[in-house]
Amino acid sequence: MRTSAFRNRTLILRASLLFALFALAASSSCLPQPPSNAGGRNITVYGFSIMKEPLEKEIFTAFAAKWKKDHNEEVHFTSSFAGSEIITNQIIQGVDAQVAILSIERDMDRIIQQSHAITSDWRSLPAHGIVNKTPFVIIVRQGNPKGIHDFADLGKPGVQLIHPDPVSSGGAQWSVLAIYGSELIKSEKQTGDRDEARALKTLKAVWKNVFSTPGSAREARTQFELGHGDALITYELEGLLMKQAGAKIEIVVPESTIFSEHPAAIIDTKVKPEDREVVAAFLQYLWSDEAQTSFVKYHFRSATNESLNDTNKEFAQIKLPFYVKDLGGWNKAYPDIIEKIWRDQVQKNK
Questions:
Q1: According to the model, what pLDDT value does residue 350 have?
Q2: Which end of the chain is more exposed for a tag (fewer CB within 10 A), N or C?
Q3: How much is the pLDDT for 12?
């Protein structure tokens, strides 16, 4: 169980984070905003937190220009971004999202099973519905004062780790799989067998040093940028965006880590027949080289064209990469690792 001190630290940090996010919300689209022009079509997109930059800064605008050129019709976008589990729950509850871009494919399946809002086969889309991917890395303070070189080092005494909450964040679930899975992959490479006891020991040690659990990967990054904590596990692209912004950090690339893969789909029940063409065209556009190039520019890796990834010289080389399929897919990884291991053996005994 979490100690009262842990809860108090988390509440204090969340309060400071909420204050920063409130200021940001006053000048940005943290909540869905109406289109600036009443004419033309509007597409409503709900995405997990780190999708914000490439979509709002390039992809929405580029698609609107293309549609205007081809159809002589204006297209506007309404967008909302939060933790993948939060976005998924909102869609299940009936928000007017027409397109969802989520952190994990399990969330797509939850929408289908719990609300039947997706009626088309999203896995029949290009790249089986995956629009981009990115490996998980560790962010540390400049100079790496805690000497962190791999996931296991995050379990050393005296390390304060910020980790988003797996209950609300798809990125947090990817991170748990990265920590646990990396020990399975490394032990298999070393001995030929996957050492589950070693993986559990590492995850327990790391989680004991988690002192704050923000609601999303983006909130966790913001908290780290406010000066809290010694380390942060997150998507590679978040670290690269932080470096690009001049943050005094270093990116530690684990020997073995997971590549997260991010699915997209139409929320069929929220698309009127007269809007189907433009919404479907936008969804397909996400796999075009133009959109994939924008994702790579913002440090996602392309899901369809590996040659585009060569244009981003900041991408790290991963010695022993793995994917959720190497852990049996989400249908196995979620119940076996997120629930039975992280929730029942690690978090409850913290």
A1: 72
A2: N
A3: 43
* 125: its two tokens: 């889309």
Domains of the chain: which residue ranges?
Answer: 16-23+134-259+316-347, 27-132+262-309
> 16-23+134-259+316-347 and 27-132+262-309 share one CATH topology?
yes
Q: Which CATH architecture does the domain made up of 27-132+262-309 adopt?
A: 3-Layer(aba) Sandwich (3.40)
Kindly state the tokens that stand for 315.
């991408």
Tokens of 62: 């580029």
Residue 35 has pLDDT above 50, yes or no: no
Q: Is the pLDDT of residue 305 over 50?
A: yes
Does residue 219 contact residue 24 with C-beta atoms inside 8 Å? no
Residue whose C-alpha is closest to residue 117's, from 140, 90, 143: 90
Q: Measure the CA–CA gap between 104 and 114, rounded to whole angstroms.
A: 16
Least Cα distance to 106 among 226, 265, 231, 249 occurs for 265
In this prediction, residue 34 carries a pLDDT of 46
Strongest mean pLDDT among 19-28, 38-47, 237-246: 237-246
Look at residue 32 in the predicted model and tell me its pLDDT.
54
Nearby residues of 112 by Cβ (< 8 Å), 6 or more positions away: 118
Instruction: Determine contact, residues 99/121, Cβ cutoff 8 Å.
Output: no
Predicted confidence (pLDDT) at residue 196 exceeds the cutoff of 90:
yes
Alpha carbon 89 to its chain's center: 16
CATH (one of 2.60.120.260, 3.90.110.10, 3.40.190.10, 3.40.50.1970) for 16-23+134-259+316-347: 3.40.190.10
Task: List, as one string, the DSSP characters of 28-70.
Answer: S-SS----S-SSSEEEEEEEEGGGHHHIIIIIHHHHHHHHHHH
User: Does residue 282 register a pLDDT over 60?
Assistant: yes
Query: 242 with 139: CB under 8 angstroms?
Result: yes
